[in-house]
Structure formats: C-alpha cells, structure tokens
Amino acid sequence: MKVLFLDRDGVINKFPGNGKYVTKLNKFHFVPGSLDALRILTNEGYSIFVISNQAGVAKGVYSSKKLEHINRNMLRDIRSMGGRIKRTFYCMHFSHAGCECRKPQIGSIRKALVSMNQTIRSAQKAFFVGDTESDILAGHNAGCATIFVLSGREDRRHMRGWKIKPDFIARDLLGATDIINERNLARSRRRKRRALTVKSTRKRAAKKKTSK
Ligand SMILES: [Mg+2]
Ligand SMILES: [Zn+2]
User: Fold this and answer.
1) How far is the CA of 59 from the centre of ligand 2 (A)?
2) Which domain does 17 fall in, by range?
3) What is the Å distance from ligand 2's center to 107 Cα?
C-alpha cells in the first residue's frame, strides 16, 4: 500500500502570504512542478490525500462554498495533467476549537486511512509532505515519514527552532517526489535481495536432501 499525505498551501499551490488565505480562484497558483509531481506519484500507484487547515472559513474570511469551488478547480486541473487526489480533508475550524482535524492533530489522517480500510498503524508506511512545523508534527504524530518542502511558508531558519525535525528536506513537491521514489526503490531492492536469499537457501537445503 502506497499512501501519501500532502498539505495544500505552500506545497501544491503557492503560499498566499502570512496571515493570508486563498480566498478566490485567481489567488490559487500551482507551485511550479507540483502538477508534474502529482502525475508521477499517481503513476507510481500512490493514494494521495490532501490534509489542509483552512481556519479562514471559521474566521469568515471566505465561505466553505468558496473553498469547495477552489477545491473542485484544483482537482480538475490536477486530473487534466494526469494526477489524481483520492480525497481532500479541510479543517475549517478555529485554532482554539480543539477539534481533531486541525493539524498537528491526526484526525484527518486517521479518517483517510479508515477510508482505505486501514488503521493508523499503516501511517508508518506513509509520507507526509508539508511546508510548516504543524505539518511535520502531524506527520510525526501519526508515525509517517515526513518531508519538509521549502516552497512555502517556513524555511531552514524556522526549522532550527522546531523540537521535531523532518526526516527529509526537499526544495518542493517535485524534489520530494524524487526522495519518495528513491526510498521506494531501495525498499523493493531490499525485498528482492531477501527473496533471492531465501530462494538460494532453499535450493541449498534441497540439494543437501537429494545428495543424502
Ligand atoms: Mg502549508
Ligand atoms: Zn477542525
């Protein structure tokens, strides 16, 4: 099972600026290369989920309808480039609401896994890609491998103050894609090597038996 969790703003689309939100369609701009990354990851067989905090809805900066509209357009553009997002999870609550879905809480990660008939334990085989400390924390809290991308809100300087550091750092989602693919390749090579070892041990054992 290949599962990937992505933050939205600063990862898929350009970060709108501190304290700002993507309130309308013409403020949504893809980060260069992110559409290619989503196509590559989709072709690699990843189930991709978007997990995004959008407290601007609770604050009344934009409506949930507007968010839905922006989301629909994003999904359509991704699809037209050959990528596929399995599902999007938006937390539209205040940061002080104490909900389970606002990162660094892992409620939405759990829900996404449940939708695939998996428990939170399988998050250990998944990646979380984000541009802020709360993304890395959410991924870490769930047990995912975390990738911090430098295409969004926070940078290496911010990172120095974090208690939990990311497992990997990439320039953007396309860079993160390279890391994910490399890790996968290494894992399948290890698996193949193990399978070969088992086979040759069996052969040797069989030989021993026949020579008796
Ligand atoms: Mg972000
Ligand atoms: Zn929430």
Assistant:
1) 13
2) 3-211
3) 9
Tell me the pLDDT band of 210, cut-offs 50, 70 and 90: low
* Tokens read off for 78: 């991704």
- Taking the C-alpha atoms of residue 152 and residue 186, their distance in angstroms, rounded to an integer, is 28
Pairing of strands 127-130, 3-6: parallel
H-helix segments, the chain: 34-43, 64-80, 107-114, 133-142, 156-159, 173-211
Taking the whole predicted model, whether its pTM rises above 0.85 is answered as: yes
Amino acid at 197: T
Asked if residue 173 lies in contact with residue 12, where contact means CB atoms within 8 angstroms, the answer is yes
pLDDT in tens, 44-90: 999 999 999 999 999 999 999 999 999 999 999 999 999 999 999 99
Sheet holding 47-53, edge to edge: 87-91, 47-53, 3-6, 127-130, 145-149, 168-170
131 C-alpha vs ligand 1 centroid, how far in Å? 5
**pLDDT at res. 178:** 97
- Quick one: tokens of 165? 């550091």
- For residue 20, the CA-to-ligand 2 centroid distance in Å is 18
Contact assessment for residue 73 and residue 32, using Cβ atoms and an 8 Å cutoff: no
The count of domains in the chain is 1
**CATH code for the domain of 149:** 3.40.50.1000
Cα angle at 211 between 209 and 212, to 5 degrees?
70
| Measured distance CA(204)–CA(184) in Å, rounded | 30
